[in-house]
Amino acid sequence: MEGQLCANVDISVRKPPGASPQSFIALLKVHRELLVGRIRNTQCLIDNLMKNDYFSAEDAEIVVQFPTQADKVRKILDLVQSKGEEVSEYFIYVLQKVTDAYYELQPWLDEIGYEPSESICSKPVVNTDPVSRYCQKLRHELGRDSKFVMLYAQREEMLLEEIYSDSIMELVSFNNESLGQVGQLEALFDDAVGVINEDGETVYVYGDAGIGKSILLQKIQSLWARKELDIGAKFFFRFRCRMFSCFKEDEAICLKDLLFKYNCYPDQDPTEVFHHILQFPHTVLFTFDGFDEIYSNFDLSSVPEICSPNEPIHPLALLVSLLRGKLLKGCKKILTARTGTEIQKNIIRKKVFLRGFSKNNLKEYTAMFFRDERQRALVSNQLEANPNLCSLCSVPLFCWIIFKCYEHFHSMFDNHELPGSSVTLTDVFLLMIEVHLNRSVKTSLLKNNIRSQAEMFKSRKETLLALGKMAYKGMENSFFIFEQEKVSSANISEEDLQLGFLRTVKSYSGCDSQATYEFLHVTLQSFFTALFLVIEEKVGAKELLEFFNECSSFETAQPTCLRIPWLKKHLAGENPFQNKEHFNFTNMFLCGLLSGSKQKLFRHLVSPAVIKRKRKTLITYLAESMKSHLKGFTRSRLTSYNQVQVQPNFVWMLRCLYETQSEKVGRMAARRMHANYIKLAYCNACSADCSAISFVVHHFQKRLALDLDNNNINDYGIKQLQPCFSKLAVIRLSVNQVTDHGVRILYEELSKYQIVSFLGLYNNQITDVGAKYVAKLIEECSSLEYVKIGANKITSEGGKCLAQAIQKSKTMFEIGMWGNQVGDEGAKAFAEALRNHPRLTNVRLTKNELDDEAAMSFAEMLKVNKKLVNLWLIQNRITAKGVKCLSEALKENTTIQEICLNGNLISQEEAKAFENEERIICF
To answer: Model's pTM, two decimal places?
Structure first.
């Protein structure tokens, strides 16, 4: 019988031509130790062998008696081989079919080229492995949970695929220097790009409120659930960090319960599943959303440095241990937090900065949101005409709010337009509140029966006050989760809940019988807090300015998360997790709600005398705060300039000033600056902030310098700086996502006033098109002396245009072209421009794909030029031949001080030939 089976089996193992057929029995013998080492689950094999009558109950009992997994595998192999070829092939077939359980053997199966015979294909295979079945359940539940995005009200949801749109994700260094953009989400886990700490395990994703951190994690979760995220993760556990605030101080749970009870519980053998997770932590992916939103009175000093995976401990201690790699070392982790939340560097593997929508992203999102072509064109045209609104729409949350408001009102009034040109974020949120309240009004068939904003707010004053009071109480303690008891005590009715400002969330406190709530977004809680401070008449000056005082000491040192006791980094009583951006939003909304233009709205809600008193208190505080704020900043005396280096929190001050929309406040702020060089570099300013910057800067009476390097300004921001350009002699916009369109705006504006002397556009997204606009500005603007346009996408075409413009300019002093691709043709044009230039002193053409031909062109130029002092040709392709030409030319040139050639194709031996010429620097 066994011989007959052997004769009938189709051997489907790859073998070299001419080799004798290899049996499955022999295959198992040859690879015995590999199978023993990689088969982790024996029960699934036993179950299937028994189901097909290949194993008897006695066979199964014999296997189970062995103490170790390896011995069990050896016994199974012995029994399988003794039963013949068919059983041996079926054994391999099970390994192939149950991919989740035997994923480590899939490369081996590919290598041997196994293809099952027809007779074996007819045999059933059932996956009884508890680990793989748990993975399937986990994918199913996470796929279901990530399919929809909760929108305006609890009854309204949209498919994630219909609302998610890509945005700018940038890999950055610890110093926030760009390391390139993230194209595919798999790149977040690709060690070939962006790793800044080999020992770290956490991908730290940060960005402003509303920039899309949570929906990004939901997208990753959805891709993983559909097996479209190929990063080697079998398990996915997601946590919202604010939920950790729900745990009581004396609560203690073990790691297994944290994973299973608050994600997905295994149907079979949770102990074995957990043991597998402990054995193979590299197969686990965690996401921790909103680390800055944890608020807890738990004493971290009680946390041991090393936690046991089996011993119960406070959940926050488990979280800290997971992030520090003390538990499940080697697992993958994504941690999100708002900008300004500093995380210990030793846990970070990659840093990812979310910048929001680019111009193209916004177009894609608009097309996705407005399916009707006519409506889409209408919205696009209105956005294009309103740069302020475009800037707000670069933040996905605010874009969604604006679009939803437009969609709602357009359904009521066919000719409804987006808000006007001076729209503030307060205007946008007021509009959202109006839409929510309008949705609760029963309408007739007539479209124009909607109440005015003032009437609507007046009719729902008690609701707004109740929601505001609860938001305020939570904001005081940085609470973002509200149990049913707190909702009821705030007199928030079921009807109020249906408005959609609050949504239910899963609680971690164990009180599953009671609903737990949160505001749709932390910025909405901030808005309602500010609204309460305005319409509650009993609020005095102390309460009104409470959250300004919370932020007053925030400037000098940002809080560092994970300041755990054994690192001795945090002050007694300080919350080590907290970020204060929610306070800043509250202050900003307060300024907007107390602005002059909103008095007409609020006179129906609170007495004019109270509004006047609160407004006066706020304006007085802003004036004094501006004065004290600027006192602590670093000041420097530069040639022709008195420079002040502001800190990131100063941007929040500018935002507050802008929300007031008071020209008097703007003039006051300009006077208090006492500087004509404003350095706002590395301040996390976005395009929408340029309206606030312009609001103050355009009040300056004299020319000034504005440094906005290393922010997120982009083309929309440049549009909003238009009121400033008549004052700007120095404008620095390096590392700001500026494209050719933004450069065109700069050319059109700066050429009008003819006062700019310094233009910084290093490391943007400028091509030859933008280079031509810069060339026209150099040619037309006689005041321009310095241009920094390195690290862009400029080729020989753009290089030649710039060189020709420089040749015509009599005032250019320095041109920085580092990191472009001008090549030899561009270099020749620069050499020609320099031959007789009367003033150009510094030229930097580092990393521009130049070779010996370019070196020869510069050598010929140096024989004539008597003004050039520094020529940088670093990291090109120049050989000793090119260096020799340059060295020979220096015999006729005594003006130039250095030619830097580091990183070219010159060996140290070859460089010795030029040792006598000190101005040639090769190493």
So the answer is: 0.81
